[in-house]
Specification:
Strand order of the largest sheet: 1-2-3-4
Structural class: alpha+beta
Order of helices and strands: HHHHEEEHEHHH
InterPro entries: DUF4191
Keywords: Membrane, Transmembrane, Transmembrane helix
Protein name: Membrane protein
Organism: Streptomyces naganishii JCM 4654
Number of domains: 2
Number of helices: 8
Length: 233
């Protein structure tokens, strides 16, 4: 047991450090986060404690209020932290790829399968829904990138459905915060072995990420494609 205790303590310390870091980052985009979380906890705890005094069981209801207060605070904190994170990422090239990388198990993401010098980019995700091409950038320019990539998919994997999504806040586009939900809503039409076979066939295509030193996740604003680099495919 003596060996497990230091490991458990280190894990707990790591979680607390992560929570503190998340709170610090969230508070920059959401200055009222502390007030909101404190209010949620106090209201829930206070209401249940008051009910406890009224019915003659302040200890039991106080403990319940304490637990429910912590639970509600954690839920509110998670949602506001997620909203703040999406707000900071939105509009940055590569933000969609960062979301796709964390979508869920069962999906394989290939960032930057097509890109132009204006930083319009198309990412590819493969799962039981088939192939989903996710574009971010100027809506008019990315349409040509999507069309070229869909044509390529139809040549390589003609028997697999191909969906396309343009990330943005305009008409017909999908907001970054709803990208994960949108992909998970596509009907599942492939089996596990079919997904594996599709990935194997697509892997032969390669991608810009394997040939260019592009950073993972959101790319710095103002970054330019090097001259002589690959053009949109």
């Amino acid at each position: 047991m003596a060996r497990k205790e230091p490991a458990a303590e280190a894990a707990n310390a790591g979680r607390l450090k992560q929570i503190a870091l998340t709170y610090k980052m969230t508070s920059k985009a959401d200055p009222k986060i502390g007030l909101v979380l404190g209010s949620v906890f106090i209201i829930i705890f206070g209401v249940l404690l008051g009910i406890g005094f009224l019915i003659g069981h302040p200890v039991y209801l106080g403990i319940l209020g304490l637990l429910l207060g912590f639970l509600a605070t954690a839920i509110v904190f998670g949602r506001r932290a997620e909203r703040a994170a999406f707000g900071q990422m939105e509009g940055q090239p590569g933000a969609a790829a960062a979301v796709l990388d964390n979508i869920s198990r069962g999906w394989t993401t290939t960032p930057a399968v097509a890109m132009n010098r204006s930083q319009d980019v198309v990412h590819r995700a493969v799962g039981k829904a088939g192939i989903v091409l996710v574009a971010e950038g100027n809506p008019n320019r990315v349409k040509s990138l999507l069309a070229a990539e869909k044509k390529k998919m139809n040549r390589i994997v003609a028997d697999v459905p191909v969906h396309d999504v343009i990330v943005g806040n305009g008409e017909g586009q999908v907001p970054l915060k709803k990208l994960r939900t949108t992909l998970l809503k596509f009907p599942r039409v492939l089996t596990g072995p079919q997904v594996t076979a599709t990935n194997d066939r697509l892997r032969a295509l390669g991608d810009l990420m394997s040939n260019m030193p592009l950073p993972k996740g959101p790319m710095p604003k103002g970054m330019r494609m090097p001259r002589g680099g690959p053009k949109a495919r």
